[in-house]
Amino acid sequence: MSNLAKTYAQLLGGVLTLVGVLGFVAPLAPTAASAPHGALLGIFAIDPIHNVIHLASGIVGLLAANMAGGQYARLYAGVFGAVYAVVTIVGFIQGNTVLNLIDVNVADNFLHTAIAAASLAVYFLAGNNNAAATRTA
Amino acid sequence: MAQMNFLTSNQMATEPPVWVDRTMRGIIFGGGALVLGLLVWAHLGLGALIHPPTPTALQQTAQAGPYAITFQSPRQLTARNANTAAFTLHGATGAALRDAQVHVTFEMVDMPMTTPEVEATRQSDGSYIAHPLFAMAGTWHMTAYVAVAGQPPQSATFTVSVRWS
C-alpha cells in the first residue's frame, strides 16, 4: 500500500465520479454546435456513454482507495493509467494524424493525457516507495 | 532478521482475505476493460456495425427562410466513401435559385463529432452538388447554408443516416 496511491485514487475517483454525475446535470452541460450532448462547464464535450465511463472510472477508484486499507490503489492507478493511455493514443490518432477527419473534443484528449500520465506516474512512484520501504526494513 | 519477521507478519496481518483480493482485482481489471471497451466503442462508432442507423429518405425538403431546399442523394450515404449530395433551391415564388452559394456542414448526432464542411458546386441544371466524406457511421445532421447576394443568409438542417457500407 502507498499513501500516494491511496490519496491519488481517492482524488481521481472523487473527481471522476463528480464529473460523471455532473454530466447528467443539464444546466452544467449546455449544448453547443460542437457538442450536441453538451459540454461540461462549456469545455469538455460529453455524452451519456462518456458520463458512464467517468462514473465507472470514479467508482472503481473510490473502491480501490477505501477497500482493504487502500491496498489496491496502486493497481487501480496502473490499470486505469494504461487504459487512458490507450484512449489518448486513439483519440489523437483519430483527431489529427491518420484520418484527419474527426474533430473529437481536444480538451477531452488532453484530459485523458493528464489522467494517463498522472496515473502511470503514481503507479511507478508508489512502486518505488514500496521497494524503498522494503529495503529500509 | 527479527525486524524482518515482524514486518512480514505485520504485513500478512493486513493482507485482505482471498475473496476480497479476487473481488477487488476483478473489479479493477473488469472496470478497466469496461472503460476501455466503452471508449473504443464510442470513439470508433462500432455500435453502428451491429445497429445500423435507420435509413433516412433519399430526398428531403426543408424550408430555410423564404427558400425551399431539397436534398437528394442517389443512394444511402456511407462512411469513408465519397458521397454525392445534390441540393436544389427554390425561392418564395417557386422559381429555382441559380445564383446562390451553398456550403454544407456536418455534425454527428450521437457524439460530439464534425467533419470538414464542403462547398457545393453549381451545376448547369441549377442544382448544387457536394461530396461529403463521413468518418463514421451513425446519424448525422447536415446543414445547408444558402447565401444569395443582397439577401440574408439562410440555412436548413437535414437528418441523414450514414452506414458503414
Description:
The complex is a heterodimer of chains A (137) and B (165). In chain A, strand 1 (39-40) and strand 2 form a beta hairpin. Mean pLDDT of chain A is 76; it is low at 96-104 and 131-137. Chain A has helices at 3-22, 48-66, 73-97, 106-136; strands at 39-40, 44-45. Chain A is an all-alpha fold and 137 residues long. Chain A has four helices and two strands; from the N terminus they run H-E-E-H-H-H. Chain A has one domain. Chain B has 165 residues and is an alpha+beta fold. Chain B folds into two domains: 2-44; 59-163, Immunoglobulins (Immunoglobulin-like, Sandwich). Chain B has three helices and nine strands; from the N terminus they run H-H-H-E-E-E-E-E-E-E-E-E. A nine-stranded mixed sheet of chain B has the order 1-2-4-7-6-5-8-9-3. Mean pLDDT of chain B is 86; it is low at 1-13. The A-B interface holds A 1, 33-37, 39, 45-47, 49-50, 52-53, 56-57, 59-60, 63-64, 67-69, 71-72, 75-76, 79-80, 82-83, 86-87, 90-91, 94, 99, 101-105, 137 and B 3-4, 7, 14-16, 20-21, 24-25, 27-29, 31-32, 34-36, 38-44, 107-116, 133, 135-136, 141.
The CATH C-level name of the largest domain in chain B is Mainly Beta
Termini separation of chain B (Å)? Answer: 69 Å
Strand order of the largest sheet of chain A: 1-2
Number of strands of chain A: 2
Helix-strand string of chain A: HEEHHH
Largest sheet of chain A: 2 strands, antiparallel
How many beta-strand segments of chain B?
Answer: 9
Spell the H/E element sequence of chain B: HHHEEEEEEEEE
CATH topology of the largest domain in chain B: Immunoglobulin-like
The biggest chain-chain interface is: A-B, 43 and 39 residues
- Find the structural class of chain A using helix and strand composition: mainly alpha
* Bulk shape of chain A: globular
- Regarding quaternary structure, how should these chains be classified? heterodimer
Unreliable spans of chain B = 1-13
User: Total helix count of chain A?
Assistant: 4
**Can you give the mean pLDDT of chain B?**
86
Q: Which CATH architecture of the largest domain in chain B is right?
A: Sandwich
